[in-house]
Amino acid sequence: MPRFEDIKRLPYTTDELFAVVIDVARYQEFLPWCLASRVFNRKDTQFDADLVIGFKMFREKFTSRVSFKPGERIDIDYIKGPMKRLYNHWRFLPDPDHPDKATLIDFEVDFEFKSKLLEKMIGPVFTEATHRMIKSFEERAVAVYGPRDLP
């Protein structure tokens, strides 16, 4: 049952970082191991998404419900796929000292595979893979908004 939580400070506004993370339809363009992504059932503050993830011999499709409050939070809840459960959340908090120039991101992911074999395959590289994924979102922000220094 891998779980990871981290808080990062980045030199972008809450709205900018929210826009990068909520853009699920483009995940295959910048996220490692994301082979395809599709958004459907759009409503005001939620949508469903399919992601096809490929890693070594592992290739699976996940369906999740994405609920959000623009500029503040994104919650991802598992619907179907190879998991017993999957929960992922992002919180976007203005930096108290520089609210217009930096954001604190509170990130958490917690999941469990149905298959113990998949759990054993993914478990040992989970933390490294999660760090790489978060780094990919940071790099996407740089690509979209340009490089910036923290204030």
TrEMBL record:
Xref: InterPro entries: COQ10-like (IPR044996), COQ10_START (IPR005031), START-like_dom_sf (IPR023393)
Residue intervals passing through the bilayer: none
User: Which Gene Ontology biological process is one annotated for this entry?
Assistant: cellular respiration
Under Pfam families, the record lists:
Polyketide_cyc
Q: Its Gene Ontology molecular function terms?
A: ubiquinone binding
Could you tell me which residue ranges the Coenzyme Q-binding protein COQ10 START domain spans? 11-138
Family of this protein = Belongs to the ribosome association toxin RatA family.
Put simply, this protein is called Type II toxin-antitoxin system RatA family toxin
To which species is this protein native? Gimibacter soli
